[in-house]
Amino acid sequence: MNRVNELIKEYCPDGVPFQKVKDVYTRVKGTPITAGKMKEIACDDGEIRIFAGGKTIIDAHEKDIPKANITRVPAVLVQSRGVIDVVYYDKPFTFKNEMWAYTSEDIVSVKFLYYVLKNSIQTFRDAASGMGSLPQISLKVTEEFMLPVPPLQVQREIVHILDSFTLLTAELTAELTARKKQYNFYRDKLLTFESDIPLLPIKEVVKKSCAGATPAKGNPEYYEDGTIPWIRTQDVRFNEITEVDSFITEKAVEETAAKWIPENCVIVAISGATAGRCAINKIKATTNQHCLNMQIDNEKALYKYVYYCICSKQDELISKKQGARGDLNSSLILGTKIPVPKLEIQKKIVHVLDNFESICSDLNIGLPAEIEARQKQYEYYRDLLLTFAEKGNTILTDRQTDRQTELSAIKLIQYVFGYVTLPMGSLFDFRNGLSKGKDFFGSGIPFIRYTDVYNNRFLKREDITALVECTPTEIEKLGVHRGDVFFTRTSETAEDVGWSSVMLDDIGDCVFNGFAIKATPKTNYLLPEYCAFCFATEDFRKYVTSHCAFTTRASLTGKAIAEYQLAIPSIKKQQETVNVLNKFHSLCNDLSAGLPAEIEARQKQYEYYRDKLLSFKKLPK
User: Fold this and answer.
1) CATH of the domain at 67
2) Is 372 helix (H, G, I), strand (E, B) or coil?
């Protein structure tokens, strides 16, 4: 408020004039276009945006728009029917002629109008009530609206503040969308299994299934004073059903096919537009005939696990719709196959997805409230953040990258299954080492020999005693760093090929010999110390010996190693394994060689600042 107050004192200390919108701004008309025509001309690369009622927006080429009246200056569009709202748009656009827009020669003034109208949107929505089944306001409502008209300097500062907080809103909205996508990604990832987990028709884990019924509407004895919950397809919304607004009587249950179902059934809508949606009833209830109700055999599967499986199978179910209305039937649903791992694994999957579900649910409720709260804290954060907004660093966000998404998915899978399996090629880059004549050896920089790799599971600086003279290019190309894994590349026999050693120190300038392969980590999914042990397993040794090439000698390539599927436990589990194996490793050496929220309640704060920012003393007449 500091800067705004200073400007008000300077330019309008006695108050500001209030004028009708029609006396300050120029009204713009739209284009006579039907919904059908909009659908016909819509295209992704259209240069003109067309607004219709509610959220209907398309892009189209100007040549395809009949009787087009294009607005080519920034304007405030009044959505006057259905969803009553205002939209600021600064690119070429038009709109259905049931709506109207306002513009001005000064862009700041247009944006100021947008914020004033947006701040008073409830006034317009109240004016629309009682005007038929579809809310609608008349032109007079906005034309006669009295708005404050402070000097342009004051308008500019207010617009500057509110624009900057709009950036915060955009960031939060993007975060909400990202988290939803992230949740869906993890869910589907967790529900994709290896072939050794049984893939069974849903009917194999269902104890009992049935459809409900709709008691005759003409019989009041079936509905009046009913107390029995009656679930309809509109109640089935990928949710837990804890209450309904429709009830039937006991007489209806006794005389019709509407029967009780127990709690925790998986309910799938099977008719029309809702077909394929599912829910869980948390109350004992009845349903209509458009619901398939499945009681899950808890000795074979968890009901919540089956629910999540069906959620992930929605696209598949939708593709199976039949008939003009697009219906499903019980056999189509019960015949859909789902993976059925052990109950212990199902419990872990449900636990993870329950947590994500609550996060997404909380974000749906909490984050929009947070968005609104941030919109409303304009004045409070002005001096702290808005200057930085001009420089592009108003808000710092930890945006997920593909690698971060992958890592999170890996962690989840590790949590559920204990490990994840990845090809070595996704974990390491492979390179052969240095080949030089004997005259280059004896002086220079540290050099890892074949025998260093063959004889040591761990390599440290003090273990590297050989030296070699290298060019800067060779050092850059063949340099050694902590976490690099070396494999013996060639030998007389397959049994001596593929033995590994891991560099545990940051050694500085150092290269490695041409009879070894260096695997440089591309990720941080593996602890270097863990790598020292995992490539000594019987499974890896069998893989190596079966993938050696034989000419005069046995040899192994980086490409062959890259194809090996490595089981990777969590970092925590890796560390636990390392701790145990290190003890054994030390013991063997002794014997043989000498051993990882923001507070709520900003609404009132926002309202306070909003009212302060957009409230002006009227200029005395």
Assistant:
1) 3.90.220.20
2) helix
Name the pTM for this structure.
Answer: 0.52
pLDDT of residue 84: 86
List Cβ<8 Å contacts ≥24 apart for 580-587.
581/533, 582/529, 585/457
H or E, element range at 443:
strand 441-448
Class of residue 1 by CB neighbours under 10 A (exposed 0-12, middle 13-18, buried 19+): middle
pLDDT (tens digit per residue) in 423-458: 899 899 999 998 888 888 889 999 999 889 988 888
pLDDT digits (tens, 9 = 90+) for 314-336: 888 888 888 877 889 999 999 99
Note whether 406 and 429 are same-domain residues: no
Beta strands per DSSP E along 176-320: 199-201, 206-211, 228-231, 239-241, 247-248, 266-269, 278-281, 286-287, 291-296
Sheet strands (E) in 198-327: 199-201, 206-211, 228-231, 239-241, 247-248, 266-269, 278-281, 286-287, 291-296
Residue 6 lies in a domain: no
Q: Are 361 and 284 part of one and the same domain?
A: no
Q: Which residue has tokens 């808005």?
A: 386
| Token output for 212 | 């409900």
Give the residue numbers spanning the domain of 259: 199-340
What is the three-class DSSP state of 565? strand
Residues 450 and 412 both lie in one domain = no
Q: What is the dihedral of CA 366, 368, 372, 374, to 10 degrees?
A: 70
